[in-house]
Amino acid sequence: MATSKVEGSSSLRHAFGGVLSVFILFLIGVVAFSIRLFSVIKYESVIHEFDPYFNYRVTQFLSKNGIYDFWNWFDDRTWYPLGRVIGGTVYPGLTLTAGTMWKLANSLNIPLSVETVCVFTAPIFSAFAAWATYLLTKEVKGPGAGITAAAILAMVPSYISRSVAGSYDNEAVAIFALIFTFYLYIKTLNTGSLFYATLNSLAYFYMVCSWGGYTFIINLIPMHVLLCIVTGRYSSRLYIAYAPLVVLGTLLAALVPVVGFNAVMTSEHFGSFLVFIIIHVVALVYYIKGILTPRLFKVATTLVLTVGIAVCAVVVAILVALVASSPTKGWSGRSLSLLDPTYASKYIPIIASVSEHQPPTWPSYFMDINVLAFLVPAGIVACFLPLSDASSFAVLYLVTSVYFSGVMVRLMLVLAPAACIMSGIALSEAFGVLTRSMKFHITKYFECSHTEAPAKLGESTSTESSAPLENMTKSDTTEKPEVARKEKVARRKQKKEKELTENAHVKPVSAKKERRPLVLPLEASIVSVFLLIVLGGLYVLHCVWAAAEAYSAPSIVLTSHSHDGLHVFDDFREAYAWLRHNTEVDDKVASWWDYGYQTTAMANRTVIVDNNTWNNTHIATVGTAMSSPEKAAWEIFNSLDVKYVLVVFGGLVGYPSDDINKFLWMVRIGGGVFPHIKEADYLKDGQYRVDAQATHTMLNCLMYKLSYYRFVETDGKGFDRVRRYEIGKKHFKLTHFEEVFTTHHWMVRIYKLKPQKNRIRGKSRKSKLGSKSTSSKSGGMTHKNPWN
After folding, report:
1. Contact assessment for residue 690 and residue 617, using Cβ atoms and an 8 Å cutoff
2. Which residue from 125, 133, 114, 132 is spatially nearest to 160, judged by alpha carbons?
3. Any residues with CB less than 8 A from the CB of 710 and at least 6 apart, and which?
4. Does residue 87 contact residue 71 with C-beta atoms inside 8 Å?
5. Does the predicted model carry a pTM greater than 0.70?
6. Considering only CA atoms, which of 124, 153, 152, 150 is closest in space to residue 137?
7. Which residues pair with 562 in a beta bridge?
8. DSSP structure class, residue 785
9. Tell me, what's the pLDDT at 566?
10. If you placed Cys at 551, which of 161, 324, 644, 788 could pair as Cys (CB 3.0 to 4.6 Å)?
C-alpha cells in the first residue's frame, strides 16, 4: 500500500510538472510574440528595411500566380537591361512559408492580406525558435535548463533586431530552422533513432531553402563528429546521426535551385564529405574489431587504415584540384570574408561596404546579449560537469559562433541562441545548487527541532513509573533486528557502489569531495538567489527597452524627438509615391543599390541595380556615373536608358545614412572595374571633405551636385548637419539634369535627364557660320567612351 501511494504521488507530481511546463512554454511563446509588436504599436503595420521589400514583392507574386510561375519568373524590372531569374536566384523558404500561411488563413475564412502575413511572420517564428531552444537545451542539460534558455531567447535583443514585426527577412524563419536542426541532430545522437535522423535531414532541407547560412550547419556538425572520433567517443549513434544527414541532406539541398550543384561542388561542403569518409573508416575498424581476434584485428586494422588513407588521399587530391581550378579556391566571397576578415576590404569592396558586414564593437555585444556575456563562461563550465556528446556540441557551437560574430556583426544573430543555451544551463545549475542548499539547511533545521522535542519530553518523564520504561525497553529490543537488517542491506549497497566506482576508476573520496561544495551556507544561498532574480529583472528591462526603442523603428519611416515634440519623416514613401504616380510605367530609375528593392516594390519602376548585388560590374557602372562629372555621368545613364536619378540626402535633417556618406564606397567599387576612377582624387590630404577644402574632382562630381543643388537656399549658408560644416561649392547650375521632385525634408531628391539637344540648321548665314564653327570644334574633339 505504501509503495503504491508513493508511486501514485510521484506520477501525479510528474503529470503536474508536465502540465506546468507546457503552460510556461506557452507563456514564453506569448512573450516572444508580443515583445516584437512595438513596431506595429508605435508606428504602423509596415515592412521594414530594404531586403524585406523584395521578399514581400516575391510573396505577392507567389500568392497571386502560384508556385510554378514563381519558379519560372523572369523579372524584367530589375537589373535593366539584364533582368533576373527570380526562381533560380532566391532562397524560397521564407516566401513559401508566408505564402502557405496566407493560403491556410484564407482557407479558414480569415481575411488577411499578404502584407499582414509578411509583417507577423517573424514574431510567430520567434515563438517557434524559443520552443526549439527548449527542446535543444533539454537534450543537453535537462528540462529546467531548457525552459530557462527558451525564456532568455524569447527576449534576447540580438534576435529581436532581426525578428520584429515587419522584419520580413530570411533570418525570420532561418534561426528557427537552425536551432531545430541542431535539436534533431542531438536527439538522434542521444537515441540512435533513424526516424529522428530522417527528420534531421528534412529540417536541414528547410534551412537550405531559407538562408545561405546553412553552410554553418554543414560545417559545424562534421566538426563535432570529428571531435567525437578524435576523443574516442565514437558510437553507432554518432554514425546514425551523421551519415543520413550527409547523404539525404545533400540530395535534398541540390533540389533548391539557388544551391543546385553547389551542394557538391563548392569548398563549403567538402569538409562534410571528408568527415563522411573518415567516419566510415572508423566504423569499419570497430566492426572488424568485434568479429576478429586481437591478432587478426591488428592485421586487418593495418589493411583498413592503408586503404582508408589511400582513399582519403585520392579524395583530398581531387578536392585540391577542384579548389585550385577556381579563382576563389572554391569559396564564395562571403565565406572567404569570414575566414579572412581582410579579404572583402581588399578584393570585394561591395561586401565590405555593407554596414552589417562590418566587425562589431565591444559595446554591441553588451547591447545585443547584455548579461548573457557574463553567464556564458559559467555555462561552459557546467557543460563539462559531466561532459557528454550533447554538451560538447553546445560548447563547439558557442566557440564557432563567437568567432564568426567577431568577424561580421550580422552573425551576432547566430551567437544569440548559443549564448542563450549556455546562460540557461548556467542559471539552471546555479538555481539547482542554491535551492538544494536552502532545502538542505531548512530540512536539517526542522529535523533538529523534532529531535530536541522528544529529548525534553524524556527528561520530564524520567521520574515516572517503571512500567513505561519496561515497555520502551521491550520496543527497543523488538526494533533491534529491524535495525540490524537495514544495516546489512546498507552494507551490501555500499559494497556494490564500491565495486562500480573501482571499475570506473573513480575513487569514492573524490566523489565525496565533488559533492561537498554543492551545499552552500543558507545566507549565501538566499543572497545569491536574490541577486540572480535582480539580474534577471535587469535583463528583462534591457530587452524591453531594446525592443521598444532601439529595434522597433522601421527604416522606411524615421522619427525624431525635440523640444517641439515628435517629428515623423516619411520622405521615402513620399518619393516612391511620386515616382509611381508621375512617371511612365517603362521609365528606368537609377540610384545606389541600397534603394533598388524599395523602388521596385513601392514605386513599381524598373531599376538598374538593387540589393541582390550579383553583378559587380553593373554596380560599378552606377558608382562610376555618380563619381564622374555631370556630362560624363549623363552619357553613362543615357546609354542605360535611364530617365530618372534618385539620391538620398540627409544634410538638412541630420540623417547620417545618406549617399554622401556612402559615396567613397561608390568610388571604390567603381574604381575596382574602371581604373580611371581613383579614390585619391576625392580626398584632401587623405581626408574625405565636402567643404571649401574639398578637391576639385569632389566638388564637380555628379553625387555632390545632385545632393547639394539649391541647398544654400534652405538657410542661406549651406550648413550640412551631418558633416557639421558649410559646403564648399554653394551656387551652381545643372546642365544635363533637372530637378523634378524633392521631398518635404529634402531626404530624397529626384532628377530627370535632360534630352539630348538636336542640331537645327538655320536659314540665315549666321546660323550656317555657327553650325560650321560648332562642327569644326566637334570635329577636333574625340568623343570619350563613357565606360572608360
Report:
1. no
2. 125
3. 739
4. yes
5. yes
6. 150
7. 565
8. P
9. 77
10. 161
